[in-house]
Request: fold
Amino acid sequence: MIGPQTAWKQKFEQILQEGFSNLHAWRVFKEVLLPIMGKQLLFLCVPDACTRVVAPLLSGKPEHELWVLVLHRTAHLVFLMCVLCYHMAVWAGGWLASLHNSLRDDKYLIGRNLINYQQQQELELLQQQQQQQLELEQQQLELEQQQQQGEEESGDGVMVREEEDAEAEAEAVAMQE
Reply:
């Protein structure tokens, strides 16, 4: 059968699958016919019973006969409206409860992973510092490689540079004293 999955659809599909020869009459009566007849009797009997109770109270005087006729004619409609209002109120109550729970969960962050932004900022700063250190180390390695290439080409320049470095260190020590 086509359509959304509901309890009624499942009941009718099960009856169709069993077939006429394997039909369980008591189960069909209890699960299908009884709920349908119960609702029909409710919608037919309750308004009629209410009008039979209220009508004698109003029928004492001749001017109230019009109200009795109106009551008999509109009782079913009034009862139907009352039932619809009840079901709408139940639906609205469920919807408001769902809305309340959703707002509460959003306010108190229920069911969500909390992130400590201060720790995350510190972590990002640490990662930036590590990245800068890696860049400086790469630059130093490149400079050293360039110096080694330059020294290999010049040959004698290595000794001269080492002597210049030693002299510069000696002058720095002398200035400090």
User: Anything to note?
Assistant: The two ends are 102 Å apart (CA to CA).
